[in-house]
Design a protein that fits this description.
With about 650 residues, this protein is mainly β. Helix content is about 0%, strand content about 40%. It holds the Pfam family Cadherin.
Length: about 650
Amino acid sequence: MVHAYSVCYLVQEFEEDGTYQLTLAAENEAELVVARSEEQTCTVTIAVSIGLKPAEPQQRSVMHVSIEENDGGPFPKSIITVPGEEHELLFSLTGTGADAPPEGLFVVEELTGEISVTGSIDREEHPTFEIVCSRFKGDNTLWGEAVTVIITVIDKNDNSPEIFETTFRVELSEAATAGTAVVTVSASDKDDPETPNAQIRYKLLTEMSMFSLEETSGEITVSQSTLDREDTAEYTLEVEARDCNGHSNGLFAQATVHITIADVNDNAPTFTQEEIQVTVNKGSRDITVATIAVEDRDEKLTENWRAVYKISGDTEEIFSISTDPNTNEGVLRLAKEIYTDMELQVLVENEVPLVAGVEETSVAGRTCRVLVSMLGEVGRIQFVPPVTKVHIQETVLAGQILAVLSAQDTENNSNENMRYAIHEDEANLLDIDAATGKLSARADLKRDSPFLQNDKYTALVTATLEGEEFGTATGTVLIVVRDSEDSDSGQRPIVLHTTACVRDENSSVSIDIAATDAQGAFVGSPPFEFFVDSQDQGWVITQMDGSRAKLSVESGTLPCGDYFIPVMGVDAAGSELGLSVQLTVCRCEDGPAIVGVLPVQDGKTGLCLSSGGLAAILCSIIAAPLLGEPGSVNVAAKTAAL
């Protein structure tokens, strides 16, 4: 049986007392299948009294009930009963969850007033319901006031905390003090905020004494004023957000915080040597006297690391000093001619001041004493170049040729009858052939030798013209020792095919190598340094200037045939340029010895030209650039046959 109800409304006020009768008729919206003869009517009598005060409204009774969120059933499940069954009443429900969406979630047993729930409820969608239960007598008139039933859904911990950002990247100054805020990890929970299910506590999962975390706010702060980028440049923190006030049975989420320590100038540069001694010829100028190394623990290639050098004790400004931008070394040069021994003090500081609170390095560490001694007047004899830089591996063997030094008589541009000698060799590591200038290793030279400074060893050599007394030249040999494991850089080498034509097997051959392309532009950042793989003992290389070197055979002569010489170049930025020279030596049938530089093809001999003196043809090759990436590099070479 279905009950329907109607409501009559007063549309205007009564003007006088009286009795009114209304007749109401009811019919179905749909046509009846079986017609009924009786008309369904109802008579309503209304007594009106103008002076009668309106009745006080009766307060609707309210019932409360709680049900669990996400109840697993079985359904329907009884939750509460509205009283009135003993009066043989009929019950009906209205409201959200009854006859309004989500409709049908709550139902009432028409004869008993028992209210049941028909399915599980998500509290996060519907935390409460308010439904109205009306009671009717048999004649379809209301019995008493309707009952309001308020249903509260009890929360379950069915939602984990949600962290708004799970990965944080933060930069923190190295000078940050204790209490400095770093970042706040924030989470929310959809569960009932009035219950522990949504009450979150934060915790650092990473044991880290440098940082602390406030458990209720999630704020991370610095706990110690001892951050040091030079010891630890980055920290990674794992943070947990757990509900139920952090209890072990609570649900949780995690976030990762990456903290990068930003460098400040908290380390002063210090000299690796407190005193150095150099010798120069009287009257010398425009030459490099020494390179002075410093150590600075701050971040490289930044203003906190870059050194600024000053000279004290040089009132006439005979010397100048600049900073090598790649090595941070001080390059001490003669700006004017010098004629007397001198003592200098070189001071060093950074481009920016040290941060407050950092103890200054002792004066001894920030000062280097430079003793400059005279060797004699600058005369006709001069080394070319004045400083010969040699790269070797620490596996170099005693007796191995390291370089061929050359001094010239500047009056006639000749190096004939020159006699060479070791002038200063503190570690007693070197030998030199007095007649040829070939510099060789007397003993093994290791990178951990106490005589090396920053993997470098410096020696002095002299040259005099045999039978003459007009002067001695002094040259510097700078040896750079490379780790043997660095020999295989994994780079794709550039192969230069070169052909030399000689008159006979007593002719000597040398090759000039230049780090330029076909248009004369540098490949890399000058100056360049060249060296031969130390495992190939048949060849030596001599630096000529900042972009060229001379490659020559140790014995001075070469039989006809094909030769493969591994060469390496290093530019100012420290990038390596692999260059392998493939040389073919052939015999000229007639005429003077002429040189051709050509790609070798099918094993054919090289080109012989007939013209006087020496000639050279540049050979441009296509090869991979540094690091083996696609591209092209042109390397120029010149081969001389004498």
